[in-house]
Each structure stands twice: as structure tokens, then as C-alpha cells.
Amino acid sequence: MSDKKAESKLQFCYLCNGYKPPRAHHCRTCKRCVMKMDHHCPWLNTCCGHLNHGYFVLFVLWVPAGCMACVVILAMTVYRDWLLLPLALFHHSFGYFTSTLIDLFMVMFALGLAVGVTIAVGVLAIYQLLAIGKNQTGIETWIVAKANHWRADTGTEPFVYPYDLGRTANLFQVLTWSGRAIGDGIHWPLREGSGEYDLTVEQIRQKHFKQQTRREFRIVRSYAGQCYPCFSFGFRTAIDTPYPDETRIAVRVGDLVHVTRKSKHWLYGQIELVKTTSPQNGTTSGSYISPRGWFPRLCATEVTGDKRIQRLKQD
């Protein structure tokens, strides 16, 4: 395929000022595009992508295994002291215990931590295995789910994921003996009948649809962008916040925000600052080089009716 045809099927990253290869996404935390990005891990302070996905999966598999070993050892310690308790009470002496009360408290505390980490990281490991069994990243799972949801509503054929090579082959795309990534992160093995840019074209379609259905909100109350607004926007807003690793944006009174996602107490959108021209066709694409993230719903009121029509005419 010629460069021009390829460019028409690739997404352009205005922040990195370059085209993104298939399966790549821009991480706003790392401030760069990541090949085959799965997610940004706040605990490791790095992105999980093509070059380290295998290492990450091995990490989330071995952490629960190690914690389960700790659970067994710590539980045996508690059980041993529990068996000695009747003997100590009968003789009115706690000299039978090999552990002090502080030791026992610390063991119980460590046991609780080990159980908690085993469950939390174990669930993450299961999700990772289910995803790579389909040769999907976390982001691609959402894209495919939205594609099939839209097709179900319109009565069209389900979306065919182009990188599904079969469960065994999918697993070995990520899980290798060395942990090193397979391939160059740009070109990927495809299932029969699929094209190299099928997923990218679907992403572009979804983004166009999102732009068409976005809502405009005018900021009426400033927000500094802190993760937890300390009840200044109400108790429910403070406790029902988005995930801590998701971006918040600071907004000022008078800002216009294009909202594409929302929850009960928060809105997700992009502040309108500067329109840019797409290098693909030389026309204004409606993309904005501006902050994008969550802000409290109480900060804004929706621009509706005549005001929105007037703005569209101005644009």
C-alpha cells in the first residue's frame, strides 16, 4: 500500500506530531505514543505495551503465587499459636508461645495484606490472560465491544477482530520463554481475510461518531484539577470520583468543553482552544490541541437550543 493510502487509514497524533501505527495509542501520562498500548500502570509508573507486555503478565502471575506462599506460611504461624492458646490458659502462663502479642499482631496484619494482594492482583492476572487469549489489549477490548454494540444496534455483521490467530497462537504472541516481545510493534500477523488497518479504520469511525454525538458544556464554576475535590463540590462528587489514574483537567469560568463521556457526578471532555488542520486532507478536522479529562458535573451547564445553533453557524 502506498504511503498516501496508508496515511488515510492511520490516526494522526497531534501531540506527538506523527502518525500512529496500528494498535498504538497516546499515553497522556507518559506524554508519548506507545506501541500496542494496553494501559498505563500507576503502580509501576510506566505504560504496559508491546515491549514489556510479556514481562507485565509474568509479573501479575508471579505476584499472587508469591503472596499465596506467604499466606500459607503466615496462616500456619497463627494456627500454631492458636493451638497453644488452651495450654497457655490452663497453666496460666504464656511462656508456651514462641511469638509475642506484637509479633502475632504483625503476622495477622501481614496475612491480611497477603490475602488482599493475592485477590487484587489475581483478578488482574485473570483479566490479562482472558485478553491475551483473544490477542487483545485492554484498550482494544473496549474498541471491539463498542464496535459490536454499534453493529448489533444497526443490525450489521459483527466486527471481525483482525489479530485473533486462535487461543494458543494468541497466548504465544505475548507469553514467550524470554518475556521479550515478538515483532517490531508496527506490523502484526493477521487472521485470514483481515486487513492490516481494519482495527484502525474502526477506531477512526468510532471517533467520528463520538465527535458527532458530543455535547457542549459551558463552565460556570472553576475547578483546579485535583483528584479529590475535598467535598467542595459535594459529598457524592468527592466519593464517586473516576479512577485515580484517569486525567483530570482544570477548568475556568467561561471555558467551553466538548463532552464525550459522563458519569453521574463527573464529565469527561476537551477544552476548546485551538482548531488544527488535518494533514490527511488539508481541512479543519475539529480536533483540538487542548487538555482533556474529567471535571465535576457541577462545574458546567450544557449549551443547548439557540445558543448551540448560533455557535455552529459561527464555526
Q: Would you kindly provide a written description of the structure presented here, covering whatever features stand out?
A:
By secondary structure, the chain is α+β, with helices and mostly antiparallel strands. The protein folds into two domains: 1-213, no CATH class; 214-273 and 290-302, SH3 Domains (SH3 type barrels, Roll), CATH 2.30.30. 42% of the residues lie in helices and 17% in strands. The chain is built from eight helices and 13 strands. A five-stranded antiparallel beta sheet has the order 12-9-8-7-13, with no helix packed on it. A two-stranded antiparallel sheet has the order 1-2. It has a two-stranded antiparallel ribbon with strand order 3-4. Helix 2 (53-90) runs antiparallel to helix 3 (101-133). The model is unreliable at 308-315 (pLDDT under 50).
> End-to-end distance, in Å?
36 Å
Low-confidence stretches: 308-315
Total beta-strand segments: 13
| Tally of domains | 2
User: Strand order of the main beta sheet, please?
Assistant: 12-9-8-7-13
Beta content: 15-25%
- Label the structural class: alpha+beta
The SSE string, one letter per element, is HEEEEEEHHHHHEHEEEEEEH
**Most strands sheet:** 5 strands, antiparallel
| Overall pLDDT | 83
Shape: flat
Query: What's the number of helices?
Result: 8
Please give the radius of gyration in angstroms.
Answer: 26 Å
Residues in helix, % = 40-55%
Keywords:
315 residues, 5-stranded antiparallel sheet, alpha+beta, 13 strands, 42% helix
Quick summary:
Belongs to the DHHC palmitoyltransferase family. The chain has two domains: 213 residues, no CATH class; 73 residues, SH3 type barrels (Roll), CATH 2.30.30.40. The radius of gyration is 26 Å and the shape is flat.
